[in-house]
Write a structure and sequence with these properties.
Its main location: nucleus. One of its GO terms (cellular component) is nucleolus. The protein has a domain of 43 residues. The protein is built from seven helices and no strands. It is elongated and about 130 Å long. Helix content is 47%, strand content 0%. The chain is mostly helical and 140 residues long.
């Protein structure tokens, strides 16, 4: 690491009540020794300077923070708002709006409605069955 980067880092970390940079740091290489710098860094911090606490800070409860940020369910209010309205659009108009908003892809198309099958009735009558029985089995 270069000396200028080290100087800038120390300027950022120093207390605001102190002067700019230490005069020994501004002197150059001959004024400081590596052992002196290490000793200065290892020195016990000032008792009045604890950055972990801030004067007047209130400790927040984790439960209160959770309740603040918890998602709120608006379903009941939304349903009341929707049901409160009296105006109901015509079915033809709603179908037209849905058709306009529908895409051309097959996934956007509504499912085809299958035609209802009528229950198949027999074509033959009871008389036809008796006639067939007489011809086939030979009974009167």
């Amino acid at each position: 690491m270069s000396a200028s980067l080290l100087r800038r880092g120390l300027e950022l970390l120093e207390a605001p009540d102190r002067g700019k940079a230490l005069p020994a740091l501004q002197r150059g290489r001959d004024g400081l020794r590596a052992a002196g710098t290490v000793r200065r860094r290892k020195r016990a911090p000032d008792p009045g300077r604890n950055k972990a606490t801030v004067k007047g800070r209130v400790v927040k409860s984790a439960i209160e923070e959770y309740h603040k940020k918890k998602a709120v369910n608006h379903l009941r209010e939304n349903l009341q708002y929707m049901l409160k309205g009296r105006f109901v659009a015509d079915k033809a108009i709603t179908e037209q709006v849905l058709a306009q908003n529908r895409g051309r892809k097959s996934k956007d198309q509504p499912p085809k409605k299958a035609a209802k099958k009528k229950p198949e009735g027999t074509v033959f009558t009871e008389e036809d069955f008796r006639k067939f029985e007489r011809e086939y089995f030979g009974r009167p």
